[in-house]
């Protein structure tokens, strides 16, 4: 595989990877984002430029990736299947690669009904397995999805996501194996709050040979307040056990307790076989990166 | 079958504002079964319209007709005489029915009384569920006869999204995740290997998104 991804090089060197996801502005003004980027600079190996997070409007993923690059931070460009068809996704990947953006995170994306534009129409020309397959062909066979040949292929690293807390586990493993067979080079796991459930998931991954060749980066989401914990608890795709919720609820300083919980989780997952890095989700909580990285 | 539901009365009233004599056309097939546009619903709507006009101090004359299927020329032809004496036709058929009436009666405005919802079935009494999106490229042999294109909120074909948990869809916890249903069925059938097959990029050219759809069969054309 030919890739210009620095993240790939670091993974190959066996470096424990630290990435982050930060908030993108709902504005054409990026001053706050620039300040946040400066805060985390030097503390992380790469940052995710998210794509229509929570089905809302923000500065675009590509704009965010370029901004990260301008601040000498390697971006991971998320491209969700919700808003783009195969024409748009391939165009975006070629455009990103032409700008030296070489890490692509393929995701299904949050459903629009869960966001502030529930009347909008989604795309889903592809699912994320098909997106991965298409990008692998683009890179390794120098061909667009219709077979049209390229004179230069994008040197990309292809990522996928999975949720250790979705079920049934057997089905999740079947799907993850399909994504890897289709070409996923790394996996980012959704935020972990329950390390014992997570351990079961990672054991299943290991026994199915998933983590043998594909590095896993585990997301950790530092909680800031009781209100935030409540929101996370209610949000689909997250599993926040009562023990963690109660710790935040009872804490005199919820933010400090959130950092403590995140540190505990990082310490526990770090030692697990197959875990090659952590991803700190620090949306509107960018100071947490310095505390955890 | 086609599942439809009646439009809000106010919307129907507004679209009929310019007409004093209308033909209400019910349909004896799908919309009769889903209680949206059968004989009874047509009569009820006609009465409602007359009462509403009377309350406004105005009049409307309603003519009613129920035909077997609004989507076939032979049945639509039965409406000729009644249609020609009215200023407008209010169809209680699905979208296909409205279109057929509009194509047949070129000089008469044809208006929809229903919103056509989907291809589905009456899941329980009073509850209808979508089962097919007519994508034109069926993959049901790989998914245990249960359609993820129609029944997964994201239409994903290789497996569930990351939001599915305890058999429920992330979009609405009252919805079952179709991937759980597919998994349970294939597991019971001993055919989980079907799920291991990677479904490549699909050809949507035969779907609604591929542009206007029309096809012909040489063996059937005259």
How would you characterize this protein structure?
The complex is a heterodimer of chains A (293) and B (222). Chain A has 293 residues and is of the alpha/beta class. Chain A has helices at 6-13, 31-40, 61-70, 86-98, 128-140, 169-182, 195-207, 210-213, 226-234, 242-250, 254-270, 287-292; strands spanning 17-22, 46-49, 74-80, 103-107, 157-162, 186-189, 216-220, 275-282. Chain A has one domain (6-292): TIM Barrel (Alpha-Beta Barrel). Chain A contains 12 helices and 8 strands. In chain A, strand 5 (157-162), helix 6 (169-182) and strand 6 (186-189) form a beta-alpha-beta unit. In chain A, helix 5 (128-140) packs parallel to helix 6. Chain B is of the alpha/beta class and 222 residues long. Chain B has 2 domains: 2-118, Response regulator (Rossmann fold, 3-Layer(aba) Sandwich), CATH 3.40.50.2300; 133-210, no CATH class. Helix content of chain B is 30%, strand content 19%. Chain B has helices at 9-15, 30-33, 39-55, 73-77, 80-84, 95-104, 148-151, 178-188, 193-196, and strands at 2-6, 21-27, 61-67, 88-91, 110-112, 114-124, 127-132. A 4-stranded parallel β-sheet of chain B has the order 3-2-4-5, with helices on both faces. A 3-stranded antiparallel β-sheet of chain B has the order 1-6-7. The chains are: A alpha/beta (293), B alpha/beta (222). The interface between A and B is large, with 40 and 32 residues.
SSE blueprint and pairings:
The complex is a heterodimer of chains A (293) and B (222).
Chain A: H1 6-13, E1 17-22, H2 31-40, E2 46-49, H3 61-70, E3 74-80, H4 86-98, E4 103-107, H5 128-140, E5 157-162, H6 169-182, E6 186-189, H7 195-207, H8 210-213, E7 216-220, H9 226-234, H10 242-250, H11 254-270, E8 275-282, H12 287-292
Parallel strand pairs in A: 1-2, 1-8, 2-3, 3-4, 4-5, 5-6, 6-7, 7-8
Helix pairs in contact in A: 4-5, 5-6, 10-11
Chain B: E1 2-6, H1 9-15, E2 21-27, H2 30-33, H3 39-55, E3 61-67, H4 73-77, H5 80-84, E4 88-91, H6 95-104, E5 110-112, E6 114-124, E7 127-132, H7 148-151, H8 178-188, H9 193-196
């Amino acid at each position: 595989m030919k890739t210009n991804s620095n993240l790939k090089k670091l993974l190959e060197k066996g470096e424990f990877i630290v990435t982050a996801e930060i908030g993108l502005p709902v504005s054409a003004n990026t001053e706050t984002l620039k300040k946040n980027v400066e805060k985390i600079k030097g503390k992380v190996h790469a940052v995710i430029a998210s794509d229509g997070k929570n089905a809302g409007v923000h500065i675009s993923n590509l704009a965010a990736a370029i901004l990260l690059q301008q601040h000498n931070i390697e971006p991971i460009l998320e491209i969700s299947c919700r808003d783009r068809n195969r024409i748009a996704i391939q165009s975006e990947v070629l455009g990103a690669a032409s700008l030296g953006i070489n890490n692509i995170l393929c995701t299904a994306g949050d459903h629009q009904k869960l966001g502030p534009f529930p009347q909008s129409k989604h795309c889903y020309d592809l699912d994320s397995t098909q997106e991965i397959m298409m990008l692998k062909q683009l890179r390794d066979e120098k061909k667009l999805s219709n077979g049209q040949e390229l004179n230069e292929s994008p040197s990309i690293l292809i990522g996928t996501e999975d949720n250790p807390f979705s079920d049934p586990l057997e089905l999740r493993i079947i799907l993850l194996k399909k994504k890897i067979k289709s070409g996923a080079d790394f996996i980012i796991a959704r935020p972990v709050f329950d390390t014992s459930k997570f351990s079961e998931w990672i054991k299943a991954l290991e026994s199915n040979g998933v983590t043998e060749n594909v590095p896993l980066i585990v997301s950790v989401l530092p909680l800031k307040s009781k209100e935030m914990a409540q929101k996370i608890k209610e949000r689909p795709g997250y599993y926040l056990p009562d023990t963690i919720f109660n710790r935040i609820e009872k804490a005199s300083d919820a933010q400090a307790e959130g950092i403590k919980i995140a540190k505990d989780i990082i310490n526990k997952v770090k030692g697990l076989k197959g875990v090659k890095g952590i991803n700190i989700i620090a949306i509107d909580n960018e100071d947490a990166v310095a505390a955890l990285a | 079958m086609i599942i439809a539901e009646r439009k809000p009365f106010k919307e129907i009233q507004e679209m009929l504002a310019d007409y004093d004599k209308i033909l209400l056309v019910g349909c004896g097939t799908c919309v009769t079964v889903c209680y949206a546009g059968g004989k009874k619903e047509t009569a009820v709507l006609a009465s409602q319209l007359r009462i509403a006009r009377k309350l406004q101090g105005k009049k409307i004359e309603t003519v009613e007709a129920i035909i077997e299927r609004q989507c076939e020329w032979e049945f639509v032809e039965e409406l000729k005489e009644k249609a020609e004496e009215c200023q407008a036709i209010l169809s209680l058929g699905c979208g296909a029915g409205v279109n057929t009436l509009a194509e047949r009666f070129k000089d008469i405005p044809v208006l929809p009384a229903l919103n056509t919802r989907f291809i589905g079935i009456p899941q329980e009494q009073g509850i209808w569920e979508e089962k097919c999106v007519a994508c034109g490229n069926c993959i049901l042999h790989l998914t245990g006869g249960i359609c993820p294109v129609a029944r997964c909120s994201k239409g994903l074909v290789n497996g569930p999204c990351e939001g599915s948990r305890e058999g429920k869809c992330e979009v609405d916890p009252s919805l079952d995740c179709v991937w759980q249903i597919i998994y349970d069925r294939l597991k019971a059938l001993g055919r989980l290997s079907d799920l291991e097959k990677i479904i490549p990029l699909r050809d949507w050219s035969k779907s609604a998104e591929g542009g206007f759809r029309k096809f012909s069969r040489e063996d059937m054309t005259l």
